[in-house]
Design brief:
mainly beta, 16-stranded antiparallel barrel, four-stranded mixed sheet, 3 helices
């Protein structure tokens, strides 16, 4: 249930003339306390997209949120792990969040704050003010989503596609995003002086700098780099039910200790096709970090990225990503169950880096991820059933993070890459069966 308060200039002048019975009837008929989250990830996890500005003489306030539980069964590196926490064999309280959305005097406000009790961390996802200059121009200022690649998500599942874990899907930063719509075209110009502010976490899980929703280059001891001065350009074109697009991103990677200025640039070709009950998402992304150094001035073949207060891990400085996902909706009438969306999301990360092992340059090992699953909608309860598999993936492993998205895991997967622990050229395909049950109100 969402609390919705609405008013208009007309209502302000007439509501005082209504009787108690007519007011109660009006509230009931207008469904002020209802919220339709739709049946897809894009509407469940990006609440602000549900609301559209109406006339400038209309004001409203909507408050909602979600409570989510999670359980897993995993087969990692040939071992079975019923649950990836200290309290195994039970459900964990995955997330709870609060959403506030409002509109008044031509200004939109959208805010979401998230809590992850399992990791003892909490942080803001987004918080922005928006203004629509006309039907063609709209500006968002604050902590807002970066206009890059497929929006809102490149994924259908509870998991994201691989770009998310590289900071290239559903990324949020501090700055502004200007949108222009013209006929079948949409253009975005955005500038972000800094990444989003960190939240709070338990240091036993990871560095304080990793307490954030989006994966960013974050400072750690000996590697004090941050993201800043990011520029994004994105354009899309609607063609017979297909959205075709191209995105470009450039940012500065600044070392706060040495004052060195490195850079990252990325580009993406993306397409999304939707027809009837089908949805197909695809994109190709190339990114490259250049002149990025640690505090001692040494060039880095991998950068350190982190989120969720769960520590940091290596990310290869250069890679090509291939992403594709397909979904199909099955409307049903099984008691409270109204829809089942089945999907398969696949990502491949082809890395360009090399590292010196036993006096020889060895090529980084690639990363793969596949998620086969279903999203079941039943009233305000939404349940993801995901069968996730992959190798050299930071989360699909008994050993979080590490070299997975950098050089690739070593033969001894829990240890860093070294002369005594070379890159594993035949990595084990790990599997995680994940069930995430959420109540959205």
């Amino acid at each position: 249930m969402a609390l919705i308060i609405s008013s208009s200039s007309y209502a302000k002048s007439t509501d005082i003339l209504l009787s108690k019975d007519s007011i109660e009837s009006k509230l009931s008929n207008s469904s002020l306390f209802s919220k339709d989250y739709g049946i897809h990830k894009s509407s469940l996890e990006n609440v602000s997209s549900l609301y559209h500005q109406t006339k400038k003489d209309t004001s409203w306030l909507k408050i909602g949120g979600a409570l989510r539980l999670n359980t897993i069964y995993a087969i990692y590196e040939g071992q079975t792990f019923p649950l990836g926490t200290d309290s195994r064999n039970e459900w964990t309280w995955d997330t709870w969040r609060i959403n506030v959305d409002s509109y008044a005097n031509g200004l939109r406000f959208a805010f979401e704050y998230r809590f992850y009790p399992t990791f003892n961390t909490h942080f803001i996802k987004y918080g922005w003010i928006g203004y629509r200059f006309s039907d063609q121009y709209n500006l968002q200022f604050g902590i807002t989503q970066v206009p890059f690649g497929l929006l809102t998500y490149a994924s259908h599942s509870w998991w994201f596609q691989a770009p998310y874990y590289l900071g290239l899907e559903d990324d949020h930063q501090i700055g502004f995003n200007l949108t222009k719509k013209f006929d079948k075209w949409t253009f975005n110009l955005a500038y972000f002086p800094l990444s989003e502010p960190r939240g709070t976490n338990d240091p036993k899980f990871g560095a304080y700098s990793s307490a954030r929703y989006s994966y960013d280059v974050v400072p750690i001891e000996g590697n004090n780099n941050i993201e800043r001065n990011q520029i994004n350009l994105r354009t899309t074109y609607q063609l017979h039910g297909t959205e075709l697009g191209i995105s470009v991103q450039q940012m500065e990677i600044y070392n706060q200790s040495s004052k060195n200025k490195g850079h990252q640039w990325a580009t993406a070709l993306h397409a999304e096709w939707a027809k009837s009950k089908w949805n197909l998402k695809s994109e190709i992304i190339y990114y490259h970090y250049t002149n990025v150094e640690n505090d001692a001035g040494a060039d880095l073949s991998s950068v350190q990225m982190g989120a969720y207060g769960f520590g940091t891990y290596d990310v290869a400085s250069e890679a090509l990503l291939y992403v594709i996902g397909i979904a199909y909706d099955i409307p049903v009438k099984w008691g409270p169950i109204s829809n089942i969306q089945v999907y398969n999301d696949y990502s491949y990360v082809q890395k360009a880096g090399k590292t010196l092992i036993n006096g020889m340059q060895q090529q980084f090992q690639d990363t793969q991820q596949n998620v086969l699953g279903a999203l079941i909608s039943a009233g305000k309860i939404y349940t993801y059933f995901d069968f996730a598999s992959g190798y050299n993936h930071p989360w699909i492993s008994d050993s979080f993070g590490g070299n997975a998205l950098g050089a690739g895991r070593g033969v001894s997967y829990q240890e860093p890459i070294s002369d005594n622990n070379p890159i594993d050229r035949s990595p084990y395909w790990n599997t995680r069966i994940n069930i995430n049950l959420g109540y959205y109100f």
